[in-house]
Design brief:
The chain is an alpha/beta fold. It has one domain. 42% of the residues lie in helices and 14% in strands. It has 12 helices and 11 strands. The strands form 3 sheets. It has a 7-stranded mixed β-sheet with strand order 1-10-7-2-5-3-4, with helices on both faces. A two-stranded parallel sheet has the order 6-11. It has a two-stranded antiparallel sheet with strand order 8-9. β3, α7 and β4 form a beta-alpha-beta unit. α1 packs across α2 and α1 packs across α4. It starts with a helix and ends with a strand. The model has no long low-confidence stretch (mean pLDDT 90). Its main location: endoplasmic reticulum. Keywords: Acyltransferase, Endoplasmic reticulum, Lipid biosynthesis, Lipid metabolism, Membrane, Transferase, Transmembrane, Transmembrane helix. Belongs to the diacylglycerol acyltransferase family. Its EC number is 2.3.1.-.
Length: 321
């Protein structure tokens, strides 16, 4: 029985990885192909719907609680396994901007915690609605956009985040602050985040008076092995250039079975205490810098407080680039 469940868990993670890598491209190609068949009307009808529904991702999306509670996601959680740790209350009487670190290759911890109910986010933080923010361009991919919105994902655009944070208290927008660039630093045993110069999420929190909350996913960088290129090398420069152009960084990585399955390493998502932020519709550079400094200090403190329980050596340091 245990062996069968382990196989099911592996299959659930494999479909998740394949969806992440190929779902959008597959349906784009399929819709184009159908145009040249007797089923051309399927493409025409979907494109008409797509145009009418174009602004939905930036207006809160279209989450589906039934999909977020699929048993499939419990199997996904158990494969690693992934665990959520609460360190403080997040009352639903206000809004929050959660910074998620590190990016890793495909944000397994953040997905399981904030896009499904497998780790019990709604039970742990009752009344709070989480929305994981992704690259805006991904929401232009047919059918894939529906899948992402159903899980509660939204574009990481100013318009999208303003809409959520103006919609009343109880919203927790989750921003993977390091972005695509941080995925290039994904090496087992190394704890590196990119935060210097990344202050847009702090400015957003000030504009809406939303509390800042640091989140760290211990074990995220142990899920894949990435081919690393030296800083300044031609390959590294090409990666960085592509990231600036396309918004994401191409990286060469491998997992365990079949090369696509992540290694089954425990991931512990620790949600820190909120940092109160005043509402400043037009924050000054000094205010942004001040709260950015408070956030970095809180993230470091969160890392130090939980690294031992998450299997890291006492000497392990968090590198902030």
């Amino acid at each position: 029985m245990a062996r069968a469940r382990a196989h099911l868990a592996a299959l659930s993670v494999l479909q998740w990885v394949m969806t992440f890598l190929f779902f959008g491209l597959f349906f784009t190609g399929l819709l184009i192909y159908l145009l040249f068949t007797s089923y051309w009307s399927v493409t025409v009808l979907y494109v008409a719907w797509w145009i009418m529904d174009w602004e939905t991702p930036e207006r809160g999306g279209r989450r589906c609680e039934w999909m977020r509670r699929w048993r499939l996601w419990q199997l996904h959680r158990d494969y690693f396994p992934i665990k959520l740790v609460k360190t403080a209350e997040l009352p639903p009487t206000r809004n929050y901007v959660l910074g998620s670190h590190p990016h890793g290759i495909i944000c397994a911890g953040a997905f399981s915690t904030f896009c499904t109910e497998a780790t019990g986010f709604s039970r742990t933080f009752p009344g709070l609605k989480s929305s994981l923010c992704l690259l805006s361009g991904l929401f232009h991919m047919p059918v894939y956009r529906e899948y992402m919105m159903s899980s509660g994902m939204v574009p990481v655009s100013k318009r999208s985040l303003d809409f959520l944070l103006r919609g009343g208290p109880g919203h927790a927008v989750v921003i993977v602050v390091g972005g695509a660039a941080e995925s290039l630093d994904c090496s087992p045993g190394e704890q590196r985040v990119r935060l210097q110069g990344r202050r847009g999420f702090v400015r957003l929190a000030l504009q809406h008076g939303a509390a800042l909350v640091p989140v760290y996913s211990f074990g995220e960088t142990d899920l894949f092995r990435q081919l690393q290129f030296a800083d300044g090398s031609l390959a590294r420069r090409l990666q960085e250039a592509f990231k600036r152009w396309a918004g994401f960084a191409p990286c060469l990585f491998r997992g365990g079975s079949w090369g696509l399955l992540p290694f089954a390493a425990p991931v512990t998502v620790v949600v820190g205490a909120p940092i109160p932020v005043p509402r400043r519709p037009a924050p000054t550079q000094e205010e942004v810098a001040h709260y950015h400094g408070l956030y970095v200090a809180a993230l470091r403190a969160l890392f130090e407080a939980h690294k031992g329980a998450c299997g890291l050596a006492p000497s392990q340091q968090l590198l902030v680039a």
